[in-house]
């Protein structure tokens, strides 16, 4: 028996004892906790955990962090103010509580009921039955234990309280009957189309009283994305914007006087309002200097609006409130961690509570918080598995939780997800008032890949490939493809003229192909925020960076013997090389976030994306007076004496070619497409002859009323 703070670990039974519970640990939780105890006087790195516990098996850092999160949850530890597990960037994890071996079971724990909760690999700790519920289901109550050795006093008590047990039985049967009708009988959900206008829609909202409905969308290729509003007495929707860029979030004011909306351009989002009662439809800017606004929702009972936004690319997403009375913006939520993002929210119908969807981009988990707006205190929180799209209040007790294929009900007071509805189609978001719930379906989309012939100034289409995949890369005379299906990303080779797909790697984590070295049969990938080499012949994955590294860019050297990659240390980006044969990492260039080989020299980009020609011997840098995009879905590469890169402003996708034959006088060319139709991702073959880009043909999407029965 090991004493761990105020808990005890039974090594033989793999049981953690404390707080009146005996928790049977899953094997990996037990192994990690035991290893922490054995090495409690030092920090344990992520690499050491991979090598010691998982013994080199291909397991993501996120999976390791989930195990550590389970341990923290079991011992009620707070990662911000830890008393059990201390984490330190670049160092790892350390058990900081008192550890004592060969202790006996304490009396107060031995007298507690035997309650065991099995924690499985597939379900997070927070989704299991609470300790009290587990005690009711599996433990023996004090009365039942006492019944094994009754005394005369016990018999008197049983006689005296017999009417009580009869009443209890009646109530219990009533509860069971209600539960059978409410939870056990199949719940159903249907949708019906709300008559709007044909086209591609991205946001929808309704007023609190149901009199107004608004959506943003593109009704024709010429119109761009605009906002359309309809009063219940009107025959049709009317456009109220003409020059909107990408209005991705909408909300009515509580008195129906204003429609608030966010409009996004590259690296900037602004908050507007339009007075929909005076007929002038003039958009007034009420908040600016935000990097991106992800959600907008009504204050319900007073003037103003709430919104989810981040002020810069590196700052956390938070919830803000715009007060229409004093025309000021205030911050509602806070977070000390940039990876914790408050991306969605909704206000209860009485205007007193705020529901927040907080997602963690490292652990891929979500948390729903309910905050009292007067005290600013968290009333309740519910950790759920990742993949939540949106949340909305259904009534005073329940919050609707939208996932890709399901709609759940989360009860604020019990903390449970009482009902789970399977959706007939994928929904983009949800909006609710006391009368109804509305949404937008994702619509039908056709994915095309266009192979165009270079030179860049012409880009004539050679062939059109209809493929249901999201990324393609040239690999010599073969084609690599990434396919997403049922939450799993697969990397494989695809037949260009057939639909045959041969999978060579599958993962549940984010995967992106960065570069290929055909002569070495190596594929450079970014998987779960780590750079790795993948051997498609021997099906082997070798990580180059750790989960603690902050990474940005990577590519093979010209000869394919090394990997060039960038990491960030102490607020500065730098380039290192990884020798594939010796596994040795060597520093190469300071103050560079992006890198590509260019003969014996390099093309680099600084933290702001500004490009330079870097001469290796002299370390001389020549400014190219062009800037790379920092958006994650863009691409750049070097072929012969040309630099190619892409950018977008959410309206247009731009492809660039910079001719650097004369490094002092580079020549720029540009091709522009609509962002909603053409992705900024692209690929160019090794011979610099073919340019591969993807195009999406949008079919119409619909506004739906969601009917829950």
TrEMBL record:
Residues 133-152 are annotated as: Disordered. CDD domains: trans_reg_C. The keyword Repeat does not apply. Residues 1-97 form the OmpR/PhoB-type domain. GO terms for biological process: phosphorelay signal transduction system; regulation of DNA-templated transcription. The keyword DNA-binding applies. Residues 1-97 bind DNA. Keywords: DNA-binding, Membrane, Transmembrane, Transmembrane helix. GO terms for molecular function: DNA binding. The chain crosses the membrane at residues 164-185. This is OmpR/PhoB-type domain-containing protein. It comes from the Bacteria.
């Amino acid at each position: 028996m090991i004493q761990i703070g105020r808990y005890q670990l039974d090594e033989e039974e793999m049981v953690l004892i404390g707080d009146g519970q005996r928790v049977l640990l899953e094997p990996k939780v037990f192994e990690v906790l035991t290893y922490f105890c054995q090495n409690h006087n030092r920090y344990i790195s992520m690499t050491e955990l991979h090598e010691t516990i998982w013994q080199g098996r291909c397991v993501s850092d996120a999976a390791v962090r989930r195990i550590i999160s389970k341990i923290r949850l079991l011992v009620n530890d707070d990662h911000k103010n830890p008393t059990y597990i201390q984490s330190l960037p670049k160092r790892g994890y350390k058990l900081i509580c008192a550890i004592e071996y060969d202790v006996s079971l304490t009396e107060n724990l031995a007298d507690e009921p035997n309650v065991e909760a099995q924690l499985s690999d597939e379900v997070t700790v927070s989704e299991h039955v609470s300790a009290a519920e587990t005690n009711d289901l599996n433990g023996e109550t004090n009365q039942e234990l006492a019944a094994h050795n009754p005394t005369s006093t016990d018999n008197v008590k049983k006689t005296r309280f017999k009417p009580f047990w009869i009443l209890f039985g009646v109530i219990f049967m009533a509860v069971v009957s209600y539960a059978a009708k409410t939870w056990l009988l199949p719940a159903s959900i249907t949708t019906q189309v709300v008559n709007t206008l044909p086209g591609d829609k991205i946001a929808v909202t309704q007023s609190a009283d149901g009199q107004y409905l608004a959506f943003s969308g593109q009704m024709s290729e010429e119109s761009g994305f605009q906002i359309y509003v309809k009063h219940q007495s009107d025959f049709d929707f009317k456009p109220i914007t003409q020059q909107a860029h990408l209005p991705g979030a909408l909300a009515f004011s509580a008195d129906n006087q204003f429609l608030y909306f966010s409009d996004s351009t590259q690296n900037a989002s602004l908050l507007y309002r339009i007075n929909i009662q005076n007929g002038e439809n003039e958009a007034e800017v009420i908040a600016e200097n935000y990097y991106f606004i992800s959600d907008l929702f009504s204050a319900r009972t007073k003037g103003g609006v709430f919104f989810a936004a981040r002020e810069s690319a590196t700052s956390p997403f938070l919830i803000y409130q715009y007060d229409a009375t004093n025309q000021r913006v205030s911050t509602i939520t806070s977070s000390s961690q940039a990876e914790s993002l408050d991306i969605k929210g909704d206000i209860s119908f009485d205007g007193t509570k705020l529901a927040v969807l907080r997602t963690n981009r490292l652990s891929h988990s979500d948390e729903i918080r309910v905050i009292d707006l007067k005290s600013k205190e968290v009333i309740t929180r519910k950790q759920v598995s990742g993949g939540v799209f949106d949340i909305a209040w259904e009534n005073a007790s329940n919050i609707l939780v939208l996932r890709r294929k399901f709609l759940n009900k989360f009860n604020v007071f019990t903390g449970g997800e009482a009902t789970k509805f399977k959706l007939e189609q994928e929904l983009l978001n949800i909006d609710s008032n006391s009368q109804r719930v509305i949404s937008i379906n994702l619509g039908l989309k056709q994915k095309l890949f266009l192979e165009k012939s270079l030179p860049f100034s012409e880009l004539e289409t050679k062939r059109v490939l209809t493929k249901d995949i999201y990324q393609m890369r040239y690999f010599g005379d073969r084609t690599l493809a990434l396919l997403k299906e049922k939450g799993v990303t697969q990397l494989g080779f695809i037949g260009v003229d057939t639909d045959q797909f041969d999978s060579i790697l599958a993962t549940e984590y984010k995967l992106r192909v960065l570069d290929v070295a055909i002569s070495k049969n190596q594929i450079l990938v970014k998987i779960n925020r780590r750079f790795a080499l993948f051997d498609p012949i021997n099906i082997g994955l070798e990580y180059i960076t750790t989960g603690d590294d902050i990474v940005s860019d990577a590519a093979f050297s010209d000869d394919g013997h090394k990997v060039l990659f960038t990491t960030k240390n102490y607020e500065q980006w730098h380039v290192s090389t990884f020798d594939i044969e010796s596994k040795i990492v060597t520093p190469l260039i300071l103050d560079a976030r992006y890198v590509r080989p260019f003969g014996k020299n390099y093309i680099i980009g600084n933290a702001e994306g500004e490009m330079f020609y870097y001469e290796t011997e002299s370390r001389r840098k020549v400014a190219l007076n062009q800037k790379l995009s920092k958006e994650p879905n863009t691409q750049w590469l070097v072929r012969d004496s040309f630099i190619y890169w892409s950018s977008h402003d959410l309206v247009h996708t731009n492809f660039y070619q910079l001719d650097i034959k004369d490094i002092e006088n580079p020549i720029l060319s540009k091709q522009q497409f609509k962002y909603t139709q053409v992705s900024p991702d692209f690929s160019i073959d090794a011979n610099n002859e073919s340019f591969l880009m993807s195009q999406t043909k949008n079919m119409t999407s619909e506004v739906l009323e969601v009917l829950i029965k």
